[in-house]
Amino acid sequence: MVIVKNYSKELENQWEEFVGSSVNGTFMQERKFLGYHPSGRFSDHSLIFMEDKKIIALLPAALVQQEDKSMLISHPGASHGGLIIKSSLSTKKSLELVSALVEYCVMNGFDYIRLKPVPRVYHREFSDQLDFALRFSGFRLDYTELATVLELKKGEEPFAKRVMSDTAFRNYQKALKSGLSVVEDGNINDFWPILENKLKYNHNAKPAHTLDEIKHLKTLYPNRIKLFAAYEGVTPVAGVLAFLLNDRVINCFYIAHHDGFQHLRPLNLIFGHMMEWGLKNGFSYLDWGISTEAKGSRVNTGLFRFKEGYGGHGVLRECYLYEVNNMK
């Protein structure tokens, strides 16, 4: 029988150990990451699923009130989450797990459950039995976003030439000859004004994190948050702030360049460098993130074209919704 428990601080070590050994966990589901947010920003309502006193799944989650409706949602402090499961969780047990979640939400007065699972490229093994269990149990797709991901596979010819479009590769070669240099752990202080200016000019927006928050995260994950930065001499001209969410995927969390140096194609140089770095360090994928907007209802075709020029292909990011009222 699957038992559902609320997360509490004394279970932190068990939680962290489970995420590290899970099929689909990343550091975004660790309490260390979720806990960096200021107290009171989210109403944490994370759950632990146990059988025979052993953890079989976790749900990093929060309680959200929308008008008169109570929702249990994947933790909004992470890009994705959903149910985090142990290796080789069977189809039968997956169905029992989802049933236990639904029953818990019925008993605790929730009106909706919204889950945003970790994308498949981050999974250490096939685990679609979990998605099947969600759909079989009445969860429906609420919305779908599309990310662009490059598979890092070794071959005989240079990798960048093999995967980039002719135009992207020409620009990469141009950048190699431009005198720019790439630093694999650049100074975030150098990059942040470039990012803020780019977001303000292009989207009238701000980064999802403050500079202080990113610096704090960097102290928590010194080897797993890395800034690949391009410089002309000592002048910073572009950067990609990467989250190494697990040992499989390099996630490009923030990407920006200084418009005054665009003619040197610094991002082409950085992406080519990251491809080679990822291959050398055993990563399987380079994830450029989504190019859809407003929960997948708008498509930024120019951004897709830019990322696909480097050899990337589409990977779904799905969000499930369950109406608990149907069970009451």
TrEMBL record:
Organism: Clostridium punense
Domain BioF2-like acetyltransferase: 222-293
Protein name: BioF2-like acetyltransferase domain-containing protein
High-level lineage: Bacteria, Bacillati, Bacillota, Clostridia, Eubacteriales
Pfam families: Acetyltransf_6
InterPro entries noted in UniProt: Acyl_CoA_acyltransferase (IPR016181), BioF2-like_GNAT_dom (IPR038740), PG_Glycine_Bridge_Synth (IPR050644)
Domain of life: Bacteria
Gene3D superfamilies: 3.40.630.30
